[in-house]
Design goal:
- The protein is an alpha/beta fold and about 250 residues long.
- It has one domain: Rossmann fold.
- The strands form 2 sheets. Strands 6-5-4-7-8-10-9 form a 7-stranded mixed beta sheet, sandwiched between helices. Strands 2-1-3 form a 3-stranded mixed beta sheet, with no helix packed on it.
- The chain binds S-adenosylmethionine.
- The site of S-adenosylmethionine has 21 residues, from helix 3.
């Protein structure tokens, strides 16, 4: 799905195209524009080559490596330094990918595990000593039955598109890495979330994607948030072109 680490470009349909940057280069690339499945009614029955315990074992291994990394430490510092203000009540992870990708790609599988680890780590940090647990939801049309069972085994909910979009409120953490623009647009359509982790405005601008009907919402997000680059996963493109947006509490 993504080219080798360090490549410069963005995905347009099935192609990767080069992007010229006006200023500082953002290290990598991200997917843009292809139509996504924003509406699906239920689980796909794509067979899995893994059992839930296989996925659990792989997840523990990859998560533990990432938790010992500089990227994880930096994420902890970033979250600690951000005044989130209003409490986060729920967190929705969009488009994680499968833990057992159809093409068997180890890189895609690893990326899904690392992005899940980072999402849950952010939730853990934001949870702090709040009494009511932050509710976690996952929406990913390519999840197979084992992916879903794994997420549920961790105690979280899987929802089917477009239900996740409808759950986004002003106290939600929205987390979606390298998603297509229309998925972001759907996620932001009803409310601007308290925290949004995803592709920033400057990247869309550089793709000349600003002449689109849903652009105003992405611009509003950019205007109303403080931003910090997502700490990189050293040697990989797991969080390339990804920014944490914290909505300012003043509403300005
Ligand atoms: C370019 S991939 C990114 C996958 C992964 N996050 C990564 O960084 O490689 C976009 C993902 O969005 C998912 N997707 C498509 N429609 C969606 C929807 N309506 N809701 C949530 N995810 C969706 C796709 O299945 C796909 O896994």
């Amino acid at each position: 799905m993504a080219p080798a680490a360090g490549a410069q470009g963005v995905e347009a349909g099935d192609e990767w195209i080069k992007v010229r940057r006006k200023g500082r280069r953002i290290k990598s690339h991200h997917p843009v524009l292809p139509p996504s499945n924003t509406s699906n009614s239920g689980p796909k029955q794509r067979p899995s080559s893994l059992s839930v315990s296989d996925v659990e074992r792989e997840h523990r291994h990859i998560r533990d490596q990432w938790r010992a990394s500089t990227g994880c430490r930096r994420l902890r510092d970033v979250v600690a330094s951000c005044d989130c203000g209003s409490a986060i009540t729920d967190a929705i992870c969009f488009g994680l990918g499968s833990f057992d990708p159809e093409d068997g790609s180890w890189e895609n599988k690893r990326r899904a595990h690392i992005q899940l680890s980072a999402f849950l780590y952010m939730v853990e940090q934001l949870q702090c000593d709040k009494r009511v647990p932050i509710r976690c939801l996952f929406q990913e049309p390519i999840f197979n039955s084992v992916d879903e069972a794994f997420i549920r085994s961790l105690g979280y909910e899987v929802v089917y598109s477009p239900n996740g979009f409808e759950q986004v409120s002003t106290s939600t953490l929205v987390f979606g890495i390298h998603l297509y623009r229309d998925i972001y647009a759907h996620a932001l359509a009803n409310n601007l979330p308290a925290v949004f982790v995803g592709t920033p405005r400057e990247v869309w601008e550089e793709c000349r994607a600003s002449d689109i009907p849903d652009w105003d919402r992405l611009k509003e997000l950019d205007d109303r948030c403080d931003k910090v680059e997502f700490p990189e996963d050293s040697g990989y493109t797991t969080f390339s072109s990804t920014v944490i947006h914290w909505r300012r509490q003043s509403g300005t």
